[in-house]
Each structure stands twice: as structure tokens, then as C-alpha cells.
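Teaching assistant's notes for section 4

Start the section by putting this record on the projector. Ask students to predict, before seeing the second block, whether beta-glucosidase will look compact or extended. Collect guesses on the board.
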Amino acid sequence: MSDPRTTLPEGFLWGASTAAHQTEGANHNSDWWELEHLALEHGIGHIEEPSGDACDSFHRWPEDMDLLAALGFTDYRFSIEWARIEPAPGEISHAAIDHYRRMVEGARARGLRPMVTLNHFTTPRWFSARGSWYAEDAVDSFARFVEAAAPVYADGVEHVCTINEPNMVAALLPVLAQAAAGAPSDVLPEQLASTGLPAPDARLTEVMVRAHHRAVEVVKSHAPHVRTGWSVSVQACQALDGAKATVEAYSRPRQDVFLEAARDDDWLGIQTYTRVVVGPDGLLPVPEDTERTLTGWEFYPQALGEAVRRAAELVPGVPLVVTENGIATDDDTRRVAYTSGALAGLVDAMADGVDVHGYFHWSALDNYEWGSYRPTFGLIAVDRTTFARTPKPSASWLGTAGRDRRWPTA
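Reveal the predicted structure now:
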């Protein structure tokens, strides 16, 4: 009998993740493309540079998949871009549908199981102009897109993620709307884990949950075999003595309600990078002498094990998939150290009965991190001019574990 502390479970998903806007490039019809250029024109927010060509993965996706398969990964999570598929309300691009269908087929041909994310933060400009997720018909609009995208996921796809980090969307959309209107804002995604998430907008929380459940219905109507879920950003929330009520008040609106919305799902995605420490009076700052990543987050790999345990407590019986976990660093040895520590905590949680079905590293590529290319999360480096891909030692280390079906050790 194999040792579960050393051997990957049968069928365990072992992959890396990307997102369309962050890697494809030239996503002109996206709300984020518009925001990037407004921010740069008016000097607002922490957007340092536009996404531009990104990694040119819209054209170079076969090379990305070739590398991941050769490295030993068995799974690849990528998103499809709503702004490309539905450039105007009700106007569907069959060329875009065909493009993403070819990606699914390309993944399968290379021995990679595709996990398709339907929405990874970005939306079409027309959707944003109508009020984005605040619009009265937002859920109907999203459902129409999911319906149109059925040829992408109906065959050859086993896992669909409806919405990436809906809690981040519900927290950040009001902030980003301020930035788009020209109002100063210092809060953008890369700062959030060191300062703590803003409380999500209650109305948006309700909309995101409805949009998810509606998307699940649409997907199941076309492909009953597809296992559906969504991915939630989960910080490891630690309470000092006397702060239990405070940490619950912090955690519940920011992540717990989104985790609990997955009670009837086939799986639940967990995305974890670091922790927050809460005292009786609120969040504590990260100590000055603590190691930080390029995003300013505390180097705390133990967060993953703590996060999956918390999710398992809130939604017992729902299988978990780690859909993102990684570190922004220009020192690849620290990436290996962080990831090995995170996986050690994951293995311990699984040994204690937490039902985890897969692990996807963020990210496959060094890519556009919502305002800057400076935070490098990738297992594979990408030259910004030539787009040459260069796997890092961490990519071989992590990929070999998938080929050997054994948990990696540092």
C-alpha cells in the first residue's frame, strides 16, 4: 500500500494556473484594459504599467502547454475571456469560441487535464459601462455568456470554475470604480494581504453568489458530467488571546460566506498566500523584521494548511481543490522553500482527514499582476520583448512530482 504522506492520491490534480488577461495580451475590450490606461493617464492607484502584450499566450498557448506537460504536470487551469467571446451584448465571437475550444483540445492532446475558469476578474467594457456586477441584469448577462461558452467546456473538460475569487470582486469593485472615475485610491490587489481585505459590498456578495449558482445551472444543463465549483481567496486568520470575536467579525463577510455558498457544489477552490493576525482591536501589522514577498505579503507558507482546514470546517463533505498557491519572488530558492512548506501543511491536513483533490500552483508564467510585471509568481520566466519561455528550477522540481506521483521535498 502506498504511503499517503509521500505518494499523490490516485487521480489527484497536479497543475499550474494562469488567467487570460494576465497572460494573453492585447485584451482591448476588457474593463481592466480600460482601467489600466485611465489610471496611467491620470496617475491614480498603484497601476505602474499596462498589460500590453502580456505573455502573448493568446498565440503562444501551445508552447505554454508543451512546457507544462514536459515538466511533468498533469493538469492546467486557464480562464476564457468574456470580453473576447462577447465583445458586444449578445454578439458572440465564434472565432473566440473556437480559439478556446482548441486550447481544451490542445491540453488533452498533451496529456493535460484542463480546468476552465469562466470569469477571472475581467469583464467586457460594455458590461462595466452598464454598471458591472451592480447592474440589474448582471446575473442574466453572465448566464448568457456561460451559455454561449458551452462548446468550450461541454466535452473534454472535467472541472469548471465559475468565478475566480468572488470575495475579491465584491471587495474591490467599489475601489476600482473610484479609480476609474478618477478618485485617488491606494488599495489594489497586491497590497491587500498585508493590510487586510476591505469588507465586501453586501449587495455584490449576494450578486456573486447568485451569479455562481446560475452559472452552475447553465453548465450542468449542457454538461452534467462537469464538476463545478468556484475559487475563494482565503487568508489564514489567526486570533490572539481575547480576539476570537474580532477575527470572526473580520473573516465572516470576507471569506466565510463565500465558502459556505459552495455547500452544494462538486468542489470548492481554495486560493491562499499568507495570513492575517487579529488582536482585540483589529488587524496587527506585519512586523518589520518579517520576510516579505515582492507583493509585500508575509512569507508564511503554513497559511495553506490552515486555510484548507478552515474551509473543511465550514463546508464539510465538499471536496477541496487548491486552485492557487505561490509566492512572488525573484529568488527561486525561496519559491521552492515556500512551496515545500505549503505542501507539507497540506499533506498534514489531508492526513487528518481533510478531503483535498488537487493542487494548482500560481502561476505557470511570470505574468501581469494587476498593475505591474514586477511581482514574479511564475514557475516559468517570460522575456518581455522576445516572449522566450525559460523554466525555473522550481518548475522542474514541482513538475517532477507530478510525473513521479510523489509529494515533492525541498
